[in-house]
Predict the 3D structure of the following.
Amino acid sequence: MIPFRHFDPLPLRHVGPLDAPSKEKNVIALTTLFKYWFANEDGSTAHEYDIPNSVAIINCGGYVDKLIKYRHPRIKAYFEKNGFDISKAGEADIPLLLTRSPKLDVLVAQLVAAYSTVDVLVKIFDHGCSVSEHYDLLNAILSANIGRRAQEIIAYTGLDISPLLLAASRMLHADVPADRFRLIRTEGSRVPLDDASQDISLSVGVINHVADPKNALSELLRVTKRSAVFAAWVTSEPAGFWAINHSGVASYFYSRNDLDEISLASPRGRFHVVEFIPESESSQPNSYVGIGAERIATLGCYHLVWTTDGELPFATHLMA
Amino acid sequence: MTANLGRFAGKVIYPTGGSVPLHVMPLFDFHLDAALDTATIVSLRSARQLGKDGVLDEPALFAWRQRMALDEIVDLMREGLTAIKSPMPRILEIGGESGLIYERLKHDISADGGEFDFAYTIEGSAAAAPYLEALHGAESHVPTFVDRSRAISIDSDLIVLNHLHGIRRFDWTGDDFERDFARVKGEAVLALQVSLGDAFTATTVRGHRVVLPSIRGVISRLPAAAGSTARLVRDFDKDFFLPELPDRTGLFLCRLGPASRHRPGYREVASIDV
């Protein structure tokens, strides 16, 4: 293959074109193209090739790729050797395990191991499940650590808005008994499940994108019986705000006040902080349309566990 | 020239009506061709299992099917299958890695109330194996995968030389092409990106170096098969190749074997105007 030079058509700027206080710079509609774009050494365009695509298709490809990697025997072998510890994934040359999603899956797996009993399935709710790739990593971790496959100890419910992703999920998990693998198609602001009906809930990179993120988080906690594991993108600004992410999808940054309100309204449990990752240190700091580095420095992502239990099987600290 | 080019692959977001990007986001290969293949397979599988088309269709998938000449290749294959007397025809597809053709074939056969009474082998690069397993492994009828780097001979009743798909996934040099072209015999379907002049090597936007055989050379060396028909689509997906090509390109779609019906746009191979 030809080793092309890397070309960034639009490097991150200190102040983005849509950053406050430039209220007059509102964008009312966006057009997204998918393309291969070639530049000459002077930066001029040498060639462009458009390809058909959509957000759902990109997500489908990305998450199916992740699922296939999770199914590789070396993933299970890693967990057989290292238990629930993913800190050695770099040494083992599996950098995928050091990304956000596996970190949260490992927390869920530890909770499943702690909650599982011989004859009762652990109910897991996956909010924004895409192709249910979390299920496959849980399967690898649980098989390695407690010798039981996911379908032997988990009753899984996934929720997503995309019919394409749900169809892919069904197709890729055709071997899991239907009564242990349920999918719901709906927008994620409201969750059509009973109060405290799920032992564990999980939401990775979704809860900020739904139509009503504050209600969605309240709903996630409402349906959770014991622990909810989730990523929440936050701002240090006094009020939460909406941005547009690289998919053209609206994305809400919770304020601290938002989280406090939701916590007070959900008194059965408390928020525990596992990790905080500043947005500037994330793998995709240039994810938001029109936002420059100055404002990105005020953003970050909490890995949180809301739990009704007194103790958790991993280190956390209570959210102050 | 190509080695000095900078390449970006991904999303480019514009204010609607504008021409200056507001945002860009690089994408990986698995978000691009592989994602489109996967989504198309999911769409076809869902349509087959639910018994109705269009359940997951969206414009991008329709466009992708056209760019892959998917429906047309499968239609040619089905005509070939009807001409084969074996109760369990063996199909060999060279170049199609994801099983896209295979899934479309099953969809179309199922829509007509037929059975999957054929064996299917896909020859591609080794990296394709886990994808094929994940996407097709849970089905009752599954394809066999062969790593094309391992030189083995595969018996088949219908050979599909899927150069159109293959050059998107791997380098396909002149030696590769000659080796694969020499395997074409009997019932066969060809989907070849060709040069309308002399053969030359092109660079694809994905960075692969691929030979585009001369259309005249291909036609002159096709095994004689009475009634074989073909069509040439000039400039088909030509921007997939980096510019400064020495000649125009085109897609050569051909079925070797006697045509059972008139197919619009198709002519006897010998009368193709090149």
Summary: The longest strand of chain A covers residues 224-235. Chain A touches chain B through 65 residues (CB under 8 Å). Chain A has a mean pLDDT of 92. Residues 55-70 of chain A form the longest helix (16 residues).
